[in-house]
Design brief:
The chain has 10 helices and 10 strands. By secondary structure, the protein is an alpha/beta fold. It is globular, with a radius of gyration of 18 Å.
C-alpha cells in the first residue's frame, strides 16, 4: 500500500492523535522516529501500524538498517505487508509527524499496551526499584519527557501523574522521553487519595519518594 495524499481519510484520522482528545477517543498515540521504533522492536512490542518513507530512511546507515529490519519483521511484513506496514510519500510523513524535518517513520501504538501492569510484567524482577516518582503540575512537554527519561535511567519503580500534568503521550513528551515509555510504568490522572494509597502500599512506611518540582526537570529525594 502506498499513500500519497495528506488528505487521505486514514491520514486525517491519525493526525487527530496530535491532540489529547484524539488520543483518548481512539486509544492510540504516535511515536515518531527511527530511535523510538528500534526501542519498540528491541522490546518485542510491535506497533499497530508503521508509516514509513523509504527514501528518507535510506539517507542514513541506521535508517537503511531499520528499513531492512521492518521489511523482515514477522507480524509487520510478509503476508500482511500493507496491513501494518504502510509506505507513504514525503508529504504524508511530514503531515503525520510533529518535527520540522521528518526522519521517515511514524509508529501507531495502542495506549493499553503501555498500562503499568503490562510494563511491570516485562521488567526484570531481580532488579530492586524502591523509588516512586510523583509529578504534579508539570506542564511543559520537554520537561516531562526529560523527567521520564531520567526516571528510567534511575530505575524508578513507577511514575504517578496527577491530572495537573501535561499528557505524557503527547508527541513532544514522547520524543523528549527518548523511549522511556517502552519500559517505564506511568500512572496518569491520579487523584491525591489514590496517590497516598499507592505510596503507603509501596513504601511500607519507608520514605523513598521522588518529588519533581513543576516546570523543572530536577528531582528531589525525601
Amino acid at each position: 500500500m502506498l499513500i500519497t495524499s495528506p488528505h487521505n481519510p486514514r491520514i486525517s484520522k491519525l493526525r487527530e492523535l496530535h491532540t489529547t482528545r484524539g488520543r483518548k477517543k481512539s486509544g492510540l498515540f504516535l511515536m515518531e522516529g527511527p530511535h523510538l521504533l528500534e526501542a519498540l522492536l528491541d522490546a518485542d512490542m510491535l506497533p499497530q501500524e508503521v508509516y514509513y518513507q523509504p527514501e528518507l530512511l535510506q539517507r542514513t546507515a541506521k535508517g537503511r538498517a531499520l528499513l531492512t529490519r521492518l521489511l523482515h519483521t514477522p507480524g509487520l511484513s510478509g503476508d500482511r505487508l500493507g496491513d501494518r506496514l504502510i509506505e507513504v510519500s514525503e508529504r504524508v510523513i511530514e503531515a503525520l509527524g510533529d518535527v520540522q524535518t521528518s526522519q521517515g517513520v511514524v509508529s501507531v501504538l495502542p495506549l493499553d499496551a503501555f498500562w503499568p501492569a503490562r510494563l511491570h510484567a516485562r521488567r526484570s524482577p531481580s532488579v530492586q526499584r524502591p523509588v516512586l516518582l510523583i509529578l504534579d503540575g508539570v506542564a511543559d512537554p520537554g520537561n516531562m519527557g526529560t523527567i521520564l527519561r531520567t526516571a528510567l535511567a534511575a530505575d524508578v519503580y513507577e511514575v504517578l501523574l496527577t491530572a495537573n500534568c501535561v499528557d505524557c503521550y503527547s508527541p513532544k513528551v514522547v520524543r523528549a522521553a527518548a523511549g522511556a515509555h517502552v519500559s517505564l510504568p506511568v500512572e496518569v490522572n491520579l487523584p491525591w487519595p489514590a496517590i497516598r494509597q499507592k505510596v503507603a502500599a509501596h513504601c511500607a512506611n519507608v520514605p523513598r519518594v521522588l518529588l519533581a518540582e513543576a516546570g523543572s526537570p530536577r528531582m528531589y529525594y525525601e
